[in-house]
Amino acid sequence: MSKIPHAKPAPHLVLHRAFDRRTAARLGRHSRRARGVVLVITLILIVILSLLGTFAIRNATQSERSINGIRSAEVAREAAETALRFCEQVAISDNDGKDYTGFGATGMRDKIITAPTIASESDSAAAWRTTASWTANGITVPNDYFKNSASGTASLTNAPLCLIQKIKTTSKPELTGYLITARGFANNAKFTSNAQQSTQGAESWMQSVLTPAS
Question: How far apart are CA 122 and CA 118, in angstroms?
């Protein structure tokens, strides 16, 4: 029996198979490279989004702190203004020879510092400068007063304080009257054991000079 010789593949078929293998290899390498690029880009985007989220949270926190600070300062300012108005009423009553007894207040006239008499608010003997003066002569505004105050400070947690001292100017014409110093505190204020010095929170100071009408 005669053997049938194996037929050799046509040259163009061999070339096609070789081309297909090379193409598949190149496509595989390109596919892996593309997946690697996509992974890197994805990681970069994740990092960028994380940073943006962190910055947004930080900005929101800082904005909230700023708003709270402004709100606390405004509460302290309104409280100081309320104390100033209250002590002006006390001084007016004293000038009329009477003790102020509104809103349940008692002994207000005894709190007025009559000696030493100072020439101005910047006088070195001004009582508002010392803690001892606030402890001995500081006037705490009654709750009923600031709850009924038109300044809207009914929600105060810490009652405002004021101090009254007699004043006599050295200028001409000579003026006599009262130097009134008021202190208002934010609701988040904290104090020393004697409650005369704040250690935390917003505090506002105001002063006025009240002179009798000529």
Answer: 9
